[in-house]
Design a protein that fits this description.
The complex is a heterotrimer of chains A (about 240), B (about 290) and C (about 230). Chain A has nine helices and ten strands. Chain A is α/β, with parallel strands linked by helices. Chain A is globular, with a radius of gyration of 18 Å. Chain C contains eleven helices and no strands. The chains are: A alpha/beta (about 240), B alpha/beta (about 290), C mainly alpha (about 230). The interface between B and C is large, with 44 and 35 residues.
């Protein structure tokens, strides 16, 4: 089966330092790929390159078997994806307007926007916050807005860079459960970065370990975690100490 | 919340609307200058005069009369004498009404001013603190100046090259005195009104034209100490800026203004001006 | 103290008597100031956004000039404009000197740098990540700018309020390029100077109360606009 996304010889260098080097990476439709690695491993860079928010120094990106003109991605192409960055970047307006932001950009009709926003606020359990100014929300609520804003776009691919890191544990657990249900239901291809092994175990089908800009191991989550190779072993070992 | 927003917005929108509606009409009148005179056209005449002349209020009476009968729009620019004369030299004004005869002569000699006619005079007076510490009351002006200098009295000068200032300097010069040698001598560099106020604050002596003094008498705590001296006449002339030397000048209007200022009816208005308010005239008709 | 009361009394007197000259002067003041601020806003905000978000060779120099412009003494602006507009100047044939137009130009000259400078600093401070997130949402350049303007609304309105403050207070340039001509270019500030010079302190005070009320009203409206939907 042809992979949905394929990277070929991706390099990202900045001032003679190679930040990222990925000879190849394939992602299948509908899968949830997790990414882990120590700080500075290049995870955020990889996510940005995959979602075309950053242009690599070299390399090609294939989407549904077609090569994309990475330096000049057409807007309609970019609009097929949704990205949730590490910080919750909320606009200074109501929750409703925040969630609707992406739709307004895509010039969706007002009535359709109302329908979709109401639906997705419901999905994430924040309907009661619709009229509240988003800056007044708690961390968990804000993150739900963030996710709703992404999922409402019904993206073909969803990229998440540590979306749950700012949340306290009980909030995180509740949100993860809701989130996984939604992802599975919509069968959205998802790539997400995390520092938390339990998140990864819960969410991902596959897991990639990044270190020093290279993918040192990739495989099914269970395999990677239980049979870490020479490179990823020390990292996973450190992470494992934090599992309850 | 929403009501306040709508209110604010509509108020601002209303203001903008009214602005654009009205501004076009005023801008049109000023841009119409370039076209040749039609029957109803009103052209702009730039009159350069001094602040003291304007502050006396005489022009507020004369100008409307002139505008009515000549169908011109007079732009009265009241500045210091130096600037008014300079505007003449540069052709930036059409007609001048000033009171610095020696400097005016220079403009006539250089060919920048033509059709110069004498209009009126008032006089300068020496005013000072009511208790007159230097005791100059009743003296001739030369004698008074000498005494003020010898006593080191507080003397306020306009110091701005105006007619008044030149008159004052002329007196010092005739006595061979350098006024700056007196520590109590100060120059304001400003118009007559402001200079009077400074003198009042400092309770000093100052040369002023009678008109400005009378207009400010209530606010300014100074008394007339020396007057009537021949040396103290302040003579006003009106003159056209030479259209041959400066081609952008509105000479027809300027000529009309000169004629207006010296004709009998206007001279009568000048004579009567201020009688009601101050009980005495501020200006005296003085045509040639 | 008496003078203050005199001035207040005079102000009320003038308003009640409906002195047309007072209204004419006030109306002209409003017209000229608001026109100048509006034009400065329409030019200044886009300019400030471009300066704040983009980089180009010489940007630093442009910013320095703008910041110098913020402190440009109005009389200096008035002097330069006079020399531009008078008969012997390059624009002399348009006879623009001693007109409201000339005053508006002078006021634009002193308020534009303020609006550009403050808008630029507001946009320069926008988090890189915010720009990335907006890009990620698939916004066009135009949509991005619109979203950012909404985010920076408070700072932008502060710029406009500052610009307006500068303009309504302006007297030196207005005197020079306007000529304080009765019925044509006499505005509240120049009237106050003239009345003081004439010794009519009560009238001057009355006019100053009028001017302050005007400034208060406009600033009040603008501030409300700025603080609408305030979160904290």
């Amino acid at each position: 089966m042809n992979p949905m996304i394929r990277l070929e010889n991706i390099q990202y260098t900045k001032k003679d330092r190679t930040i990222l080097s990925v000879p190849s990476l394939s992602i299948s439709q509908g899968e949830v790929l997790g990414m882990m690695g120590p700080n500075g491993a290049g995870k955020s860079t990889l996510i940005k390159i995959l979602s075309c928010l950053q242009v690599p120094t070299e390399g090609k990106l294939f989407y549904k078997s077609e090569e994309l003109p990475i330096s000049r991605i057409p807007l309609e192409q970019r609009r097929k994806w949704a990205v949730v960055l590490q910080q919750t970047l909320i606009f200074d307006t109501t929750v409703f307007q925040n969630v609707a932001a992406g739709l307004k950009i895509r010039k969706v009709s007002k009535s359709q926007i109302k329908e979709k926003v109401d639906f997705w606020l419901e999905q994430f359990g924040i309907s009661h916050l619709a009229k509240k100014n988003a800056h007044q929300l708690s961390g968990g609520e804000a993150q739900r807005v963030n996710l709703a804003r992404a999922l409402i776009l019904e993206p073909e691919v969803l990229y998440l860079d540590e979306p749950f890191s700012a949340l306290d544990y009980p909030t995180k657990v509740k949100l993860l459960k809701d989130f996984k249900a939604i992802i599975k239901q919509t069968k959205t291809t998802t790539i997400f970065v995390s520092h938390d092994i339990s998140e990864i175990q819960f969410m991902s089908d596959r897991l990639a370990i990044l270190m020093d800009g290279n993918i040192v191991q990739i495989g099914s989550t269970a395999t990677v975690l239980n049979n870490p190779n020479h490179y990823s072993a020390p990292f996973i070992h450190d992470m494992s100490l934090h599992i309850e | 919340m929403k009501v306040k927003r709508i209110f604010s917005f509509s108020l601002i929108a209303m203001l903008i609307f009214m602005m654009t509606a009205c501004s076009s009409s005023t801008d049109e009148t000023s841009s119409k200058q370039e076209q040749p005179k039609a029957a109803e056209e009103v052209k702009d005449l730039i009159l350069a005069t001094t602040t003291s002349t304007q502050d006396s209020g005489l022009l507020d009476v004369l100008i409307p009369l002139f505008e009515e009968e000549s169908h011109t729009n007079v732009k009265t620019i009241a500045v210091g004498t130096g600037q008014a004369l300079e505007m003449g030299t540069k052709g930036e004004a059409d007609v001048l009404l000033v009171h610095a005869p020696a400097s005016e002569q220079e403009l006539v000699d250089s060919g920048d001013a033509v059709n110069r006619k004498r209009v009126m005079y008032n006089d300068f007076i020496l005013v000072g603190p009511a208790d007159d510490p230097a005791g100059v009351k009743g003296m001739g002006v030369g004698e008074a100046f000498q005494k003020l200098f010898n006593d080191g009295a507080v003397f306020i000068s306009r110091g701005d090259d105006s007619g008044t200032h030149k008159k004052e300097l002329g007196i010092w010069q005739s006595l061979n005195i350098t006024p700056g040698d007196n520590a109590g001598y100060a120059e304001t560099g400003q118009g007559m009104g402001n200079t009077l106020q400074v003198a009042a604050e400092k309770q000093g002596y100052v040369i002023t034209d009678r008109a400005t003094y009378l207009a400010q008498k209530e606010n300014v705590d100074l008394e007339i100490l020396v007057e009537g001296d021949e040396d103290l006449l302040n003579i006003y002339h009106v003159m056209q800026v030479n259209p041959e030397k400066h081609d952008k000048v509105f000479s027809e209007g300027a000529e009309k203004f000169v004629d207006f200022m010296i004709k009998e009816e206007t001279q009568k208005v000048i004579e009567e001006f201020g009688q009601d308010e101050y009980g005495e005239p501020l200006f005296f008709p003085y045509t040639e | 103290m008496d003078l203050l009361i005199e001035g207040l009394k005079k102000a009320i007197e003038m308003l009640i008597s409906g002195d047309p000259e007072i209204f004419q002067i006030t109306w002209l003041t409003l017209r000229v100031s608001l026109t100048a601020v509006l034009i400065s806003t329409f030019i200044g905000i886009p300019a400030g956004i471009i300066l704040g978000l983009t980089s180009f060779p010489g940007r630093r120099l442009v910013l320095i000039m703008i910041n110098i412009g913020m402190g440009l003494p109005p009389v200096v602006a008035g002097l330069w404009i006079t020399m531009l507009l008078w008969r012997s100047g390059p624009l002399g044939s348009f006879s623009l000197l001693y007109s409201p137009f000339a005053i508006i130009i002078a006021q634009i000259l002193v308020s534009l740098p303020i609006i550009i400078g403050l808008t630029c600093s507001a946009f320069q401070q926008i988090d890189e990540k915010m720009l990335l997130q907006i890009k990620a949402l698939g916004a066009t350049r135009f949509q991005t700018v619109r979203l950012l303007i909404r985010e920076a609304k408070i700072a932008i309105l502060a710029a406009i309020i500052a610009g307006f403050g500068r303009v309504i207070a302006e007297v030196g340039a207005a005197m020079m390029v306007g000529g304080n001509i009765r019925g044509e270019t006499r505005i509240l500030t120049t009237s106050i100077v003239m009345e003081v010079s004439k010794g009519n302190f009560d009238v001057a005070l009355a006019l100053s109360f009028l001017l302050m009320s005007l400034a208060f009203l406009i600033t009040f409206l603008l501030t409300n606009l700025q603080q609408r939907n305030r979160v904290r």
